[in-house]
């Protein structure tokens, strides 16, 4: 009984460490992406001919990204996949809040509630859902030695799961490549299937690295090399497919659906490969599912009601009386002046920025006419 209580105490402590690492990592990643966006916007507003990687701001964001991703990587060694994977909603929440804070909109309370009420409801749902699935999530604790990982792989549930995943992935890839089925669901299912392999391998690699640092060498086992290669390959192809999905479809919709698909398949992968729900009762499982569903709904509301950037469709007319070219955009801003107001991610709003002024004292432009005689009475029109 004492051994069981000690084991539960170790599991609770490890879960808490892993959860805090995952939350901190997602927060740092969101903040660092905003810092890098700030660097790009600030550089675009100056006349300096410098690339983004020559600015200290961009590099500080890059350093924070590395730290955040490192914290996410280490968190898998302590907490179950079912707890760490859904915590990506923290990144969505933080990015949305940062974008909202930098919009600097001025509106009445009634209009504010109408425009942002559902977004704030999404914030509440994400926070509440995160609390539920972290509190009622699996509390399993397994020492991820190389021998244990090999034992998991050779089990028939894992072999059957991997076989079904490979068959599904090949079918989706066939329709995507050969049949040109560029549907968002198909691409994001490919991303989610690769993501399930990623979380399995990341947990194995991070667990073996942690044991190695504690003094139990695990890096000389062949399974470590296999897991490391699979991890790198799955991450690369996952990022490639996700980039294609964002290029072909709305990035906000892609982010929402990708979070739902990736979280579901990651939880299933952890349950099958590492048996994370083996000793959990029905109540804890139901509350975990409820918390995850609340996060899904919250992410949907946050991404659905992001302010869409307006498409710039200019047309140009020439006032021949004054020789002044005039750019029109149906009342939209042609090119906003850089005034220190920055936009982050896809949360773009430049409606309140004054348009750039055009010069009014321009000389009459010289217009060349090819292949025809210059009309009489217009000395400014010359022939090539």
How does this model look, in words?
Helix content is 63%, strand content 4%. It is mostly helical. The strands form two sheets. The chain has a two-stranded antiparallel ribbon with strand order 1-2. Helix 8 packs antiparallel against helix 9, helix 9 packs antiparallel against helix 10 and helix 10 packs antiparallel against helix 11. The longest helix is centred in the first third of the chain and has 43 residues. The radius of gyration is 27 Å and the shape is globular. The termini are far apart.
Work out the number of β strands: 4
- Helical amount: 55-70%
Pick out the low-confidence regions.
309-321, 325-384
Overall average pLDDT = 78
SSE order in H/E notation? HHHHHHHHHHHEEEE
Category by helix and strand content: mainly alpha
Shape: globular
- End-to-end C-alpha gap: 99 Å
What's the number of helices?
11
Main sheet: strands, sense, barrel: 2 strands, antiparallel
User: What strand order characterises the main sheet?
Assistant: 1-2
Strand content: under 5%
């Amino acid at each position: 009984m004492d051994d069981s209580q000690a084991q539960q105490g170790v599991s609770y402590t490890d879960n808490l460490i892993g959860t805090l690492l995952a939350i901190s990592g997602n927060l740092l990643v969101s903040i660092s992406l905003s810092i890098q966006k700030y660097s790009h916007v600030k550089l675009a507003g100056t006349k300096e001919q410098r690339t983004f990687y020559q600015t200290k701001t961009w590099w500080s964001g890059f350093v924070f990204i590395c730290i955040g991703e490192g914290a996410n990587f280490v968190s898998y060694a302590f907490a179950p996949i079912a707890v760490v994977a859904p915590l990506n909603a923290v990144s969505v929440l933080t990015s949305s809040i940062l974008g909202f804070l930098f919009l600097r909109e001025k509106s009445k309370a009634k209009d504010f509630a109408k425009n942002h009420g559902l977004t704030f409801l999404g914030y509440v749902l994400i926070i509440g859902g995160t609390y539920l699935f972290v509190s009622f999530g699996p509390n399993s604790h397994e020492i991820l030695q190389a021998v244990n990982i090999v034992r998991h792989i050779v089990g028939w549930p894992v072999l059957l799961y991997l076989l079904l995943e490979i068959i599904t992935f090949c079918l989706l890839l066939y329709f995507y490549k050969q049949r040109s089925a560029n549907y968002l669901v198909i691409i994001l299912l490919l991303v989610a299937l690769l993501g399930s392999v990623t979380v399995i391998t990341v947990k194995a690699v991070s667990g073996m690295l942690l044991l190695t640092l504690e003094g139990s060498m695990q890096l000389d086992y062949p399974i470590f090399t296999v897991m490391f290669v699979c991890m790198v390959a799955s991450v690369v192809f996952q990022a490639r497919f996700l980039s294609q999905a964002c290029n072909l479809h709305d990035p906000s919709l892609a982010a929402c659906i990708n979070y739902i698909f990736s979280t579901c398949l990651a939880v299933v992968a952890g349950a099958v490969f590492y048996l994370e729900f083996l000793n959990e009762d029905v109540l804890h499982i139901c509350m975990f599912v409820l918390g995850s569903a609340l996060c899904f709904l919250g992410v949907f509301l946050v991404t659905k009601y992001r302010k869409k950037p307006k498409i710039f469709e200019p047309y140009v007319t020439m006032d021949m009386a004054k020789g002044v070219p005039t750019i029109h955009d149906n009342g939209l801003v042609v090119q906003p002046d850089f005034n220190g107001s920055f936009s982050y991610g896809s949360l773009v709003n430049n409606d309140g920025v004054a348009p750039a002024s055009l010069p009014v004292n321009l000389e009459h432009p010289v217009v060349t006419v090819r292949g025809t005689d210059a009309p009489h009475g217009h000395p400014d029109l010359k022939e090539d």
